[in-house]
Amino acid sequence: MKSGEVNRLISTIDTVPPLPVVVSSVLRVAESPNSNAADLAAVVSDDTALTARVLRVVNSPFYGFARKVTTVTESVVLLGFETIVNLVIGITVARTMDAGESHVLDRRRFWQHSLGTAAAARILSDLVDYPNPEETFIAGLMHDIGKLFFDEYLPDEYAAVVSRLRAGEGDELKVERDVLRTDHTLAGEMLLKKWHLPGLYQKAARYHHAPLRYERRLHTAAGRLVGAVYLADIFSKMHGDACDARAYLPAVDPHVWSLLGLEEEQGRRVFLLFEEEIQHAKEFLGVACSSDLGDIALVDKGEVMSVMIVCRRQPVVSTTRIILSSAGFDTFYGLLNKGNVEIPEGARPDIILLDQDDISSDFAGIVQLIAKIREKTGLKIIILRDGPVNVEEEKAYERQGVFMLEKPFRAADLIEKLRGILARPTPVAGSTNPG
């Protein structure tokens, strides 16, 4: 950004009201080495509404205490300083995010995605060895807050951004920079800085799309938190829970995945725990928020279906495979070698999946490959296709046993499509060129 654009952003952010004074007071108490539980409780208790919400959360099934907790002091003793501080931040920010007038941003979807990212970040905190799950939760909750700032304080410019994104033009950050000369990650960092929230939350907002720009090896605790929020954002989108309707099923940076020491099976664990953690997230914040993430229909365990995912080289991690294995499909890779697919010895796939991004940017470039696979195996093929699918062309391919799923889509869409395809009879292999 040029200096004039930075100054414009700063001057606009300066018009944003501060967070309630209780947040800064709580942070001051938490940072003082001489503070005790009574000091923190006294600050929180000055805000009657906040006190009521804290006690409601502490007594919720999320913590499951055998007896009712009746004072904030007791809450601090039972849960600790850090948990109560993060609870205050979370409740206050949630109220802020839920207030204000919506212009072009779908606040319901924004809230769902923020909550989903917070929930996934909390699951990931243990997997990436981050010591404080509440901090990853709050960082996930606030990661996209720059979008909220754009919607409320730069509504006309942001309307142009949203319009172009809905039309499928470019990726989100590029369009924001083109129209606004900045993006929601920088705006989010500056807003959280204005609110005097801890630096780790500022950095998570700034680098949640590019954690390796923050720290190349992700070896510090802060780096692992930023990496966890990056992955949590993706897992939330995998469930079809995103502000941008074109953001479903994004790819995971294999370098980030490897640096955090994760394995694909752990991705499946995050995916399976997601819905349960969403409920915990609502209890943690004491909010009632509807979830519209799409049901992931599990495959009947008595009829496990096998899916071969075709790719040029075996990936470190595949969001597609995580989704399919989480739904109960048996999955494995078939590697491309000189135009042919190598099927592992003993493997018996029921269907073959190709992602256009893994094969060729030009759809015409994979037609010949499809024909070879159909001729060799006689199996149905599903293609995850970039761009719009012509209806007549799609029908012609389906008659040959080749099915399309246009990107973007939700995880539930992929499962539903696969189940529908597998229920249909398999056409006799023949030409796969509809023309």
Short recap of the structure:
This protein is of the alpha/beta class and 435 residues long.
Write the layout of secondary structure elements.
Blueprint: H1 3-13, H2 21-31, H3 37-45, H4 48-58, H5 72-79, H6 81-98, H7 107-127, H8 133-142, H9 145-153, H10 155-166, H11 172-180, H12 184-194, H13 199-207, H14 211-214, H15 221-238, H16 254-259, H17 264-285, E1 306-311, H18 319-326, E2 330-337, E3 340-342, E4 351-355, H19 356-359, H20 364-377, E5 380-385, H21 391-398, E6 402-406, H22 411-422
Helix pairs in contact: 2-3, 2-6, 3-5, 5-6, 6-8, 7-8, 7-15, 7-17, 8-13, 8-15, 9-10, 9-12, 10-11, 12-13, 13-15, 17-18
Jot down its keywords:
Rossmann fold, alpha/beta, 22 helices, 435 residues
Shape: elongated
In the CATH hierarchy, the architecture of the largest domain is: Orthogonal Bundle
Specify Rg, calculated over alpha carbons. 24 Å
The CATH superfamily of the largest domain bears the name Hypothetical protein af1432
| Annotation, overall tally of beta strands | 6
> What do we call the CATH topology of the largest domain?
Hypothetical protein af1432
Which consecutive residue ranges, at least 5 long each, have pLDDT under 50? 289-302
Run of helices and strands: HHHHHHHHHHHHHHHHHEHEEEHHEHEH
Query: What is the CATH C-level name of the largest domain?
Result: Mainly Alpha
Structure description:
The protein is of the alpha/beta class. The chain folds into 2 domains: 283 residues, Hypothetical protein af1432; 122 residues, Response regulator (Rossmann fold), CATH 3.40.50. Helix content is 56%, strand content 8%. It is built from 22 helices and 6 strands. The chain has a 6-stranded mixed beta sheet with strand order 3-2-1-4-5-6, sandwiched between helices. Helix 6 packs parallel to helix 8, helix 8 packs across helix 13 and helix 8 crosses helix 15. The longest helix has 22 residues. It is elongated, with a radius of gyration of 24 Å. The termini are far apart. About 3% of the residues have low confidence.
